Fold these 3 entries.
Entry 1:
Amino acid sequence: MSGSRDAILGAIRSTHLQGEYPRPAVPLFDQAAPVDLKALFQKSLERMGGKMLLPDVADPMAPVRQAIVKPGPVVSCVPEFEGDMKITPQTKPTDIAPVEYAVLRAAFGVAETGSLCFTEKQLHVNTTGFLPQHLIVLLDPAQIVYNLHNAYQRPEWLQAHYAVFQSGPSATADIEGVLVHGAQGVRSLSVLLQP
Amino acid sequence: MTAELHEELTDPHGEHLDHGAASSPPLKSRISEPQPRGAKIRGNRPVDQSEAANRFMAATEHEAMHDARLWDLRQKRDKEMHGIEEWEELRNLASSIKEHTLSKLDYYLELFEKNATANGIKVHWAKDGAEHNAIVLEILRSRGVERLIKSKSMLTEECGFREFMAHNNVEVIETDLGERIQQLDDEAPSHVVVPAVHKLRTDVASVFAKTIGSDPDNADAHYLTECQREATRPLILSAQAGMTGGNFVVAETGTFVVCTNEGNADLSANTPPLHIASIGIEKLIPGLNELPVFIRLLSRSALGSPITQYTSHFRGPREGGEMHVVLVDNGRSERLGMEKFWPGLKCIRCGACMNTCPVFRRSGGLSYGATYAGPIGLIIDPTFNVHKYRNLPYSSTMNGSCTNVCPVKINIHEQIADWRKTLAGEGEISPVKKVMMKAAGEVLASPVVYRASLPLGRSALRHLPHFMLYNKLNTWGRKRDIPETPKQTFNEWYRKNRKSQSEGEKS
C-alpha cells in the first residue's frame, strides 16, 4: 500500500541514530587457503552428510551408474549422462515429484562448507534440486572456491533469479535432536569430481 | 500409513551423525509424561512467566531433555567458534554492518525496492501485521488460491497469519517439521530455530497419531519424520501458492536469502506458480560482500553447524512464475527511534541467546507467552506491548551469557536492565514489586536508615521462621536458599578491628 510505504519511510527518516556508522570493508579471509581445495571440500561435504563418489578414469560415468541402486525414474540435466526422463520446456515443477534420482552439475563448490551452488541454469526446472529422492552431482574440481567470501565474488549472483547452496542432503533434528536425512528435500546427496 | 522406512533413514552403519541440527550425544527421553503447556494468556493482562516455568520444571523429563538439548547446541556452537580464527572479527563486522544499514535504512529499503522491481518482483509495504495479512489475502484471493504451503517465519507468527487465514478459508500448511508439529498441535513455536524443542518424542507421536494417522505407540524419530514427509508431500504438490520469510535482504542486488535445513523453503517457493515472501524491514544488508559474514555466523551460532543444508537466494520470479515481497514494519520503525533499544533490530534470529540462557533452558519457550522467547524476547516483546510483557525483563539472572554469544553483538543483558528501569519509570511494575521497591527505596535513600536496618535484617534473617522468608511475595526465595548470615556487618567488624587498631597505633 503506497500510503504505508511513505508512512514507513517517513517514520524511519524521523529517527536519527546518534553517532556515525560507516560501512565497513569486509576482507576475504582467504590467506590460509590451501592450494588443493579438493580435500577440504570432501571433508566439509562429509561433515554435512554428503558422500563423495570414487572417480573411474577409464569410464567416468561408471560411478554415477553404480550409485543408482533403486528402481525409479532418473532425470539427467547433464550431457555426460543419459537419464530416462527428459526435461522439456513444457515440464512443470510438480512433474519432478516421481523422480528417484536427479543427475546435476553444480555451478561451483565451496570448500569451507562443502556447499554446491545450483542456479536455474543447472537445474533446468528448479524443483530438480529438491523434489527427487536422491541427487548425484558432478563438480568440476577447478570450480571449487575456498570460502563463502570467495563464493559471493562469483558472477552467478548477478545472473540467476534463483540460486541455492546445497550442503549435504535435506536434514532435520526437530524431534529430540535425532538426525534424519530427507525431511522434505533429498534423502541423499553424492558428488563426483568431474571436469 | 506405512511404517516401511527407506534405509537411509535408519543409518545402516550405526554411525552417529551430528551435522545440521542434530545433537552430538544421543539423547533419548526415558519416560512418557504429559507435556506442560505454555503461559496462560488472559487478554492484555501481564503474562506470568514464572507460573508457566514452574509447571515446565515440574515436568522433570521435559525439563531435563530441553536443558540437555539446548546446552548441547550451545557447546556445538563453541566448537565451531574455535574452528574459525576470525570469529570475533566476523562478529564485529556483523554488528557494524547491521548498525550501518539501520542508520540508512530508508536508503537501503528504496534501493532494494528499485532493484527487486527491476528483476520482476512485486514489492508491497505493510505498516503492521493486519495490513500484511490483508495484502497477502488479496494476492491469494485474486488468484483463487485455496491452499498455501509455507516455510517457517517468525514474522508471520508476529502477524497472527495462520489464524487470520483460517478465518478466511485459506488452508495453510507449514512445511518445516518442527513448525508443522506445532501447527498440528495448535501451539506456537517455542524457539526461533527449533520450534518443537520443548516436546518429547512421545508428545510428537501422540500429536501425529491424532492428526496424520501415525501409529500412536511408535515414537521413533525416523518413523515420525517419514510419516510427516509422506503426509505433507501431496499437499505441497497440490498447493497453488508458496510462502517464505527472509533471513537477509541484499539491497544492491534486490536478492532475499532464506536459510533452512530441510529444503522446505525451496519447495514452498519453487513448486507452486506463486511465491510470496514476508520480510521484516530490519533484514536489509547493503551488498554481496556483506552477505557471507552473516551466512558464516548464522548456523554456527544457532546449531553449531557450518551452514544450513540449504541457503536459497531469490532475485526474481522463475519463468512463468510470480514473486511478491511484503516488507513489514510492525513496530520496527518505532523501535529504531528508541535510544536504548534500537540495537535489538540487529538480531538475525539465530537463537544462540536462548540456547545459552539458564532461565530459558529450564522453563521452555512457551512460558514467555510471546512470539519471541528467551533473552531476545525479553527486550523485543515489551516494544510490542509494554503492559502485557512487563514481567518478562525480570526472567533473567543477568549473567550476560546471551550478550557473549550474540553473533551481532547486541547488548542483551544491558537492555534487560534498561527495560527494568524504563518499565518502573512508566509505572509498568507489578504491585508486589512496587511495595518491595518502595520500601527498599526508602531504606537505600538514607545512609543512616540503611545502616540501622542492617543488623535488624540480619537478625531477622536468622530468627524469622522459614515461611516468612519463603512466601509468595518473595519470588526470589522460591528456588533459592539464602546464604548463612554473618553475625556482624562489615561496618561493625571494621569499627571493632581496624579502628581500635589504628587508635591503638596512635596512642
Entry 2:
Amino acid sequence: MVYMKEYTLTTGRDSLQSITAQLTETIKESGIRNGVVVAETAASTAGIFRITSCGEEVLDDIVKEMRRIVPARINFYHQDSPENAAGHIKNCLFGSSVSMILKDGKLLCEGKDDVFFAEYDGPRERSYSVCVMGE
Amino acid sequence: MNRNDYDDSLLRQARRMEEYINIVYQNVLPQVKKLPVKEIWDVQKVFISGCGDSWLAGIAAKPAFESVTKIETNVMRAIEFSRFLNSKNLGYSPNTPLVILISYSGTASRVIECARRASKYGANTIAITNNPESPLAKECRYLIHVGLPEDGEYQPGLTTYNASLLALFMIALRIGRVRNTISPLVYDDINRELLNFVSECQKKNDEFEEHAFAIAEKWKDLKAEDFIGDYGDYATAFFGSAKVIEAFGGYTTYDDSEDWCHINYFLTEPERIGRVVVTNKSTPSFGRVLETINAIRIINSPCMIISDAKKEEFPETMEVFTTPTPKYFWMNPLVQHIPFDMVAGYIAAIKGVPSFRRDDERYSSDLSKSRLKGGTEIVII
C-alpha cells in the first residue's frame, strides 16, 4: 500500500522547521504499520534532512556552518541572486529528501531524531510531500 | 456638451494604460534579471537622470528605490548631472554609483552627455529607452529596452512616462532581490501587486473620464492650473503641470504643500486658478496637505484632489478622485497622473488645441529637433 500527503508551510530566512509531527500524523492516517516513509521537497533552494534531537544551539550551529560552507557570493555563474545561487548548492549538498524505516507503526528513529525543512532562500511559501509505503 | 464628442491622445492613452503596462512588464522582466549580481552588489549610490517626463519618472521612482533597495538615491536633472555634479561622485570607489539614464528616444543630447560623463569616470550605467540602437543605448553599459510598439500614440507623454517608471520600479526590485533587502516572498508579492494595482485602477476609467469631463467643462476658461504634491507625489503634480502646457498650452505652476502656502497662495484671482492636489493617506505630510487644502478652500479656488483617501476626508466643495490604495505606497505615481491627464485631454479637445502647438510652425518638430537633439555635447571633467 502507498499513502501520500502534501503539506505547505511559510518559511523564514535561513529557517529550520521541524516537520516530525507531520510525518507521524501521515503515518497514523495511512494505517500502514511496517515499511518505508519518505519526505521530499521539489524546491530547488530548500531541503529536508534528519538530525538527532538536540536543542536550539545545534540548529543555530547547522545554519551557521551551512552559510560558512556555502556563503552567498556574488561570483556564482547563476545570477538570480547570491542567496538563491547558494541555496541551489545547499540543496544539492544537504539533500532534499529523507527516508526512514517504519516498524510496528513507529519510525525506528522516533524520539531520537527530528526531521527538518530547511529554507535557503526565504521567506517563501513552500511545500513538501510525505509518502508511506508498506503494509 | 456630450463628452463622446471629444477625444484626445491623452484620453486614448489612459484607456490603454493597463495594456501598455503589461507589454512593458513582459519586456523588461527578462532584461532586469540579466543585470549582473556583482555590479548590483557593488552599488553604494544610485543616480537617476533624464529630461522632462523622464526626470519626473526618476522623482516618482525615488520612494520605491529607497524603500526597496535601502540605497541612497539621487534624482538629478540632466543638466545638473552632466555639467555640475562633482566628478568625485562618479568614481568606482568609494562611491561606486549606479547611474540610470532615461530617454524614450535615446537621442536627447543632455542625457547622452550624462552617459559619457558617467562612463568616463567608470560608473556603471543603465539606459532606459525604447530605442536599442540609439546613442544613449550605445553609451551605457546595460540597456533596458521598454519595448513599446513602434506605431503607438505616445504624445503627450503618458505611456512613455509609465514605461520609464515601471522599468525603474523593476530595476529597484532586481536590486532588492539581489541584495536581499526584500525577501523572495515580498519580491513575488510586489510583482503580482504591480499588475493587479494597475488593473484595479483601469477599472475606474469610465468613472474618472466622466468626472474629468465635468471638470474640464468648468475649468476650460480658467487662467491657470496650479499643482501641489510632496515627495513622490511631487512628480505626479509636476507631470500634471507639464500636461497643461503640452496638451493645450495653458499657464501653470507647481509646488510642494509647504512652499505653496508660502508662495503660490498669493497668486491673484484665486477663484480663476484651478488647484490640483496629489496626496495619499500613507504620506507623512498628509496632515500638512489637509491644512493646505483648507487654505485653498478659504481663498475659494476650484480644487481637484487625487488621492487614495476617501472623499469624506476632504472639504465638501473639492472634486475628489479616489484611486485604489496599493499594498506598497510607492506604486501610487504609476496611476495617479491619470485623472488630470484626462482633464487636460478634455480641455484640449474642447478648446480644439493640438498638442505641442502642431498648428503653429514656430513649434514645428524640425525646430524641436535642433532644440533638444543634436546640440553640442561636452563631457565635463
Entry 3:
Amino acid sequence: MASTTQLPTTPAALPQPVTTRRRPPKLGRSRPNFLGGLGGWLWLAIIIVPVYYVVITSLKNQAGFFTSNPMLPPAEPTLDNYKLVLENDFAKYFTNSLIVTVGSVVPALFVAFMAAYAIVRGKGKFLSWTNNVFLLGLAIPLHATIIPIYWMITKAHMYDTLLALILPSIAFAIPVSVLILSNFMRDVPNELFESMRLDGCSDWAMMWRLALPMTKPAVITVGIYNALHVWNGFLFPLILTQSPDTRVLPLSLWTFQGEFSVNIPAVLASVVLATLPLLVIYVVARRQLLSGLTAGFSK
Amino acid sequence: MSATTTTPPRAPAAKRATDTRRTLEKGPSGWLAVPALAFFMLFAILPLLGVLFLSFTRWDGLGEIKLDGLSSWNTVLADPVTGNALLVTAKIMFFSFIVQAPISLLLGVFTAASQKYRAALAVLYFVPLLLSSAAVAIAFKALLDPNFGLGPGLGLPLLAQDWLGNSDLVLFVVVFVIAWQFVPFHTLIYQGGVRQIPASLYEAAQIDGAGRIQQFFNITLPQLKYTMITSSTLMVVGSLAYFDLVFVLTAGGPGYSTRLLPLHMYLTGFKANDMGAASALGVILVVIGLALALFLQRLGGKNRNASQLEGA
C-alpha cells in the first residue's frame, strides 16, 4: 500500500531501528516513586487474590469448602479434586485441545508466512489488495460470522468434528499472523535477497533458506500467540461441537461447572489443570510469549 | 527497493543488467499469498456475506432456509431486547474503556522502567493472559459468591454482596472482570510503546530540570499517541467480542442486564432457533465494529501505518 513511503533514503537507514528499539528509558533515577510503587503493589493484589483463591480452594475437600474460611489455605490439603477431574476424561479433552491447536497453528503459520513473504517482497495490485483484505479482517468483529460458519460446517457434514474447529481457526489466525510476520520481514535487509537472487535462487528457496531463518523468532512468537488463542477459544467449540468426544478444554470447564455445580473445589481444580500447560510454557518461554502478544501492535 | 533509483538505462551495454534488475524488482509470485487468502475468504469474508444473506431468510438452524424478505429485520428492530442489548454493549464498552485505558497506560509506564522489583511484578501481572475466558469467569463466579467467596473470607460484609444476582451491580462486576482479564494485554502494548521512546528525550528533560510528572505529561504521553490509538482500537472493537466471558459469568442475566449484542445474537440463533434474526444482529455487529475501527483510525491520521512501520 504505502510502498513509496517506506523506501529507505539511504541503505544505512535499514538496520538502524534495530539498535534503537529496545532501550528502556531511565525514568527518574533521583528518588523512588512511592506513589507508583504503591499502585504497582495494589494491582498485584488485584491480580493475585483470584489466582490464590482458585488454587487454595481446589485443594480443599467439599466439607472443608463449606466450613473453612474461604481465603485461608486448607488445613488438610487434598488432591482428590484433581483426581476426580482427571477421571472425568480430562485427558481426552486435553488431547482434543492439543490436536485442534497444533492442527490450526501449523497450517496457519505456513500459509501466513508465504503470504507475508509475497506481500513484503512482491509488487502489484493483487498483493496490495490481499494485504488490505487482511487488514480489514483485523477490524471486523469476526464473531458476527458464527451463524454462516455453522451453516457451512453443517452443510459440509463436519458438525461435531475436530476439523470443524480447525478450519475456521486457521482462517481467523491468518490476518494477525500476516501482519506481524510481514512487519518483521521488512526488517530483513534487501541486499541479502538481492545477492541470493544473483546466485540464481528461486523465491521458493529464498523464502525457506533466507526469510525463514531471519524471521524465526517472529514465527515462534506468532505461533505462540495463535496457539494461546486457539487453546483458549470457546465460541467455535460451543457452536460447532456437541459430544464429549470432540470436547475441548475451555468447553469442558463449562460442562464441568454444569455437572459438578455443587462441587466448587473440583470445578476450580479443572480450571487449574486446564491452565497448567500454558503456565509451564510461560515459565519456560516467558519472553517469547510476551513478545508474541505484543508483536505487531506496539512494534 | 533501492534499485528503483538506479534504473534509468544509459548505454545498450547496460541493458542486460537492467533486465536482471527488472526480474529482481518483480519479486515473488502472487500465488504464494493465495492459500492464505483462500482460507480467509472462505471462512471469514464469505461468511460475512453469508450473514447478510441469512438476515433476509427464515431458518431454525436445522431445516430448510427460506427467503423471507425483511421480516427478520422487522422482528429484530421492533424487539426492545435489541435496543437493550445495544445499550448494554455501549455501557460496557464505555466503562471498560475508561477503566482499562488509564490503568493499562500507567502500568505500562510502570513496568517499562528498569527497576528490578517492577520487572518481577510484571511477571505476575501477565498471568491472566494465560487463562481462557471460561476459566476467568468460573474463577470469579466462585470468588464473588456471597457465602463462600471473598466477602466472608475477609470478614467484610460489604464484599459479601450478591454480585452476580443484583441487576444494579452486575454490569460493573462484568466491567471489573473484563479489566482483570484484558488490562495485562494492554499493559504489555503500552510497555512496548514506552520502551520505544528515545532515552535522549528524558535525558534532555532532566537537564532542563523537568520533574517526573512534567516528563510524563510532556514526553511520555505525546510519544505514546500511536500506542494509545492501537490500544484503544483493540479495546473498543474488542469489547464487541466479550462473548465467552459474559456467557459463562452471567449468561446475560439477571434478566437482560448483561445481555450484550454478541450474546444476544448467540442466544437468538442457537437457543431461540431464529437464525434469521440472529444474522440481522450479526450484521449490526459488523457495521458497528467497522464504523468504530474506521473512526479510531481516522483519529490517528492517515500516515499512521507507514510511520509505525518506519518507527519499528
